[in-house]
Design brief:
Layout: H1 3-25, E1 44-50, H2 54-65, E2 72-79, H3 85-95, E3 100-105, H4 115-125, E4 130-134, E5 138-140, H5 145-154, E6 159-162, E7 164-167, H6 173-194, E8 208-211, H7 212-217, H8 231-239, E9 245-248, E10 255-258, H9 263-277, H10 282-288, H11 290-319, H12 321-324, H13 338-369, H14 377-381
Parallel strand pairs: 1-2, 1-4, 2-3, 6-9, 7-10
Antiparallel strand pairs: 4-8, 5-10, 6-8
Length: 383
């Protein structure tokens, strides 16, 4: 059998393997089922850790306080803020005296903001069984936000990761790229959790729920004291159990998170996230790279196709030396053997069908996730 036939057959075979592995790993984004009733409601403490976010903090507190949930509280941790955060907390405490409590963490001599200590302080100050972490720049999209988290808790899950719909203020080119990156990472995490009910591969710093006692028993973020931020990624991937984590994608369980409005701030946060990814376990890294491996497999299949066509042309040239000589009057118009042309057509047809289906699925997922933003930025910045 000629070598080029073996190469072309290998390219088709690798393409088929890529398609099978890709569609076996693909999980369409959809809302989790919601039970008809929940009784009793689990107690939830919403812990908001804030640093120099006075404008956003008041809006976040107001939206959480408007939740239609019977058993919850708000715990605000002031992490060495230098703006008017203290005044905002005092006003909010008077406004919601039975709902809101606060604590603070002073800045150390080196000027380091200990997010690990601030989170642990907020968790220890909580009086409810379940903890929900929330950023001051994150606001729930619905007043049924806590109810949806409670539904997932009552289904037996030990950890709930809610979707963060990131948005920007100026909508510049770099902000649009940042929004796509955040969405892509969360979709990968959703598929990793729901593909065979595996463990998560990441978790955002906002809209994540876990049991207070589990956090304390696991030592909190004590393993990653040297990291400045993004500890939620490592905590979720380290301590989550199989089949015990659910990622909530329905709009009522989402929060709207404003990305840092300055490029340098977002790049710093992005670097911290990538640094946290490097601390993931080997198995989690492999699962994170699943689609990268599949892309490599597709490129190898394409390279073999091109190599097989090129090799068939070389063999065709050797088969007809007189036609390829300098003195020949007429060169063959189609020197590539018919089997190479058929392989190229088959490869192209299969690839086009795959790309069309992939684009349709991606557009469907984004249409489900990209719901209208309800946060009024003008109201925040006019305060």
């Amino acid at each position: 059998m000629p070598l080029y036939i073996i190469i072309l057959s290998s390219s088709i075979l690798l393409l088929l393997i890529y398609l099978i592995l890709y569609w076996r790993s693909y999980v369409s984004v959809k809302a989790a089922p919601i039970p008809d009733s929940v009784s009793p409601w689990p107690g939830i403490s919403v812990v908001i850790i804030t640093h120099d976010s006075d404008r956003m903090l008041q809006h976040a507190i107001d939206t959480v306080a408007a939740q239609q949930y019977p058993d919850y509280e708000i715990v605000v941790v002031n992490n060495a803020s230098t703006d008017d955060t203290n005044d905002v907390i005092k006003r909010a405490t008077k406004q919601y005296p039975t709902l809101l409590r606060s604590t603070h963490l002073p800045q150390n001599r080196n000027g380091i903001l200990h997010m690990t200590i601030a989170t642990t302080l907020g968790v220890r100050a909580a009086r409810k069984e379940w903890i929900v972490l929330l950023r001051p720049n994150s606001t729930p999209k619905s007043n049924l936000w806590l109810q949806n988290i409670a539904f997932s808790i009552m289904q037996g899950h030990d950890m709930c990761i809610g979707y963060n719909q990131y948005y920007s203020y100026d909508k510049t080119a770099w902000e649009r790229r940042a929004l796509r990156w955040h969405q892509h990472q969360q979709i990968l995490n959703y598929r990793a959790i729901n593909r065979g009910k595996r463990k998560p591969i990441a978790a955002e710093s906002s809209n994540i729920a876990f049991r207070k006692q589990d956090f304390l028993d696991n030592g909190g973020y004590g393993r990653w004291l040297n990291l400045p931020n993004c500890h939620e990624h490592l905590y979720a991937t380290t301590f989550a159990s199989r089949c015990s984590t659910q990622m909530l994608m329905q709009p009522e369980a989402q929060v709207e998170t404003l990305i840092p409005p300055i490029l340098q701030l977002w790049e710093t946060e992005h670097r911290q996230t990538l640094k946290a990814y490097r601390r993931l376990s080997s198995s989690t890294k492999i699962r994170r790279k699943r689609y990268t491996f599949l892309t490599t497999l597709a490129l190898v299949a394409f390279a073999l196709l091109v190599g097989g066509i090129a090799w068939s042309a070389i063999e065709d040239e050797s088969a007809y030396p007189d036609l390829w000589s300098m003195g020949s009057i007429q060169l063959p118009t189609f020197s590539i053997p018919a089997i190479a042309a058929c392989a190229a057509i088959l490869f192209t047809a299969i690839s086009l069908i795959h790309l069309i289906c992939k684009a349709h699925c991606k557009r469907k997922d984004r249409r489900f996730l990209n719901t209208p933003i309800v946060t009024d930025l003008t109201a925040i910045y006019d305060n």
